[in-house]
Amino acid sequence: MEKMQSLEEFYQSKFNRVPENIRNGVGHFNVFTVDEYIGKSHRPVVYSRKDYFKITLIIGRNRIHYADKVIEIRKQALFFTNPQIPYKFEWIDDYKSGIFCVFTPAFFHHFGNLNDYEVFQPEVIPVFELTDQQLEEVTSVFRKMQAEMVSGYAHRYDLLRNLVFELLHYTLKMQPASKAEKQKTNASQRITHLFLELLERQFPVEDVRQRISFRSPSEFAGQLSVHVNHLNRAVKEVTGKTTSGIIAERVLQEAKILLKHTGWNVSEIAYSLGFREATHFNNFFKKKVQLTPVRFRETD
């Protein structure tokens, strides 16, 4: 897997320039057409994490490699990406079109936490296929973004934030109400949110010497200063899953990513994911996937 791509590297590789204000402390935002993006010294997109957020309107058949999954877009869709999960696009046919915006977390400082929105949470597959009518409505929002970028209006960035939120809420309203959309108000929701945040903070694993610190419910409970039974009850109440089950799901996801997109050997991956022995990792992986790590790596 390639190292995390910075916003500067994105601009340099696609446009041979880096905007002067890209790291000015107040955040960065920009919007592009896919046609413009792929027409500038186009090279295949590598599977990697990016250090910025991105919302893409994809028009045309596409195959998205996202974390350990492959999602095929048949006609048109919205795709939300965050700095936690690696991905790449693979166009299936010659027709390629769409619009996308990129922005840094600092762009929304004091305006809300993007990670609170379901479409940017790691456990969600953030691809939303659109009808033709929805395509028109979403395209209209992106066109407003393009117009504001060149408007010269003194408060255009406030408008641009509002347009990003418009896309977020438009997409969330397309989906049935879920726990992730509800405000976390009670004690169980708060402790579950803190647990999930602490779990995700250990990822991505980007260096063979890096090792995750917490693997068991009791270790997480100790860090959160709560009894492990209280943590387990809260997580089960809010998510419907066990604490150990959620930890295992996230470790398995990272294991698949590392097996498919790095050259690390199985022992190195086992160590980075907190297993004391490679055999323990092999047993864990085979139980979950019905394949050994080596066999999984060899599959398409």
Automatic annotation (TrEMBL):
Q: Does the keyword Transcription regulation apply?
A: yes
Looking at the record, the residues that make up the HTH araC/xylS-type domain are: 189-299
Record keywords: DNA-binding, Transcription, Transcription regulation
User: Which InterPro entries does the protein's record reference?
Assistant: Homeodomain-like_sf, HTH-like, HTH_AraC
Which Gene3D superfamilies does this chain map to? Homeodomain-like
GO: which molecular function terms?
Answer: DNA-binding transcription factor activity; sequence-specific DNA binding
Put simply, this protein is called AraC family transcriptional regulator
| Gene source species | Chryseobacterium hagamense
